[in-house]
Amino acid sequence: METHSTILARLMALLEDRKRNPPPRSYTSTLLAGGTAKIGAKIREEAEEVVEAAGEPDEAGRAHLVHEAADLIYHLAVMLVYRDVPLADVEHELARRFGISGLDEKEARG
Asked: If you write DSSP's letter for every residue of 57-70 in order, what string do you get?
């Protein structure tokens, strides 16, 4: 079984390749061509679907949540690639925050 970081790294590499070498029939390429507006609209749509799925009961709701979370993460990864933000930068930011109270961190941002 692949680790989460391995599959995320593979996803980012694939998305970066799609950005450099857009195939003619690629959903990723159409998102990248649409820029921040198109990718952002999909992120908002997928985030809403995550929230809706989270409210669904039982195992079917859990499975739906996992599916929608994967969609959201994919679209967020597309945005990161579009903006040339490596996954390592996000990992570094999460590591910086690790062990810091979320309330304290928010207050420090002003």
From this structure: -HHHHHHHHHHHHH
- Residue 18 tokens, joined: 């799609």
Q: Nearest CA to 72 among 91, 98, 54, 93?
A: 54
Q: Do the Cβ atoms of 50 and 68 come closer than 8 Å?
A: yes
**Tens of pLDDT, residues 10-65:** 999 999 999 999 998 999 999 999 999 999 999 999 999 999 999 999 999 999 99
Q: How is the chain split into domains, by residue range?
A: 4-85
Does domain 4-85 sit in CATH 3.40.50.1460? no
- Whole-model pTM: value is 0.87
Q: Copy the structure tokens of residue 109.
A: 């941002």
